[in-house]
Amino acid sequence: MIPIPLIIGGAKLAIGIAQGVNERNKAENERRRLKKAKQRMRDFEANRQPVINKADEIRAIKDSLSNPAANLPVAMKAAEMQMEQTDQALANTLDTIRATGAGAGGATALAQAAAQSKAKVSANIEQQEAANAQAAARGEASLQSTKANLEQSAISEEIGAYGRQETRDLVQLDRMQQAIDDRRSNVQDYRDESTSAILGGIGGLGEGLMQTDFTEQ
Length: 217
Prior knowledge:
Layout: H1 4-46, H2 55-64, H3 76-100, H4 104-211
């Protein structure tokens, strides 16, 4: 007849082995989940969706800008017409002087008047050119200021986009890493529990052997 302590010890060993196998199976299942969690993290890192970055579009707007006052035309057509009218008026007057037999003094005075008229036309052209040059300078200053502001906006957008990307990705990566750490911890816990259960069963068998008096057999 098998001694009761030995039976109890054997039962403890069997229970310990069963629990150990069960915990080992849990550890293996958790190890597979850990492997999948790691793969999900690798896939996320390889396929992260880019954050919207409008820096290139902003620079494109900047590059398309120009100075509208850079090449303002002078009203040459009107000036030419005015000179032609002055010349025509002079010619008509000279014809009249010749026809009436007027003196040379009248022709001289007329020539002086025509010269003064042309001088006014030239002065008007110079004024237009000076005004255009000033407008071009103001336009260029405004253009450069606008370009500088757009460039700064583009840089700020790039920095902001990078920051948004980093913040979003780091949050997601932290979650994935936490899941991996939890799985890894579970694997180790199950393995420890498996070992503990088996050792407990062996201990129970040892106690049964120690309590059994084989001399009575």
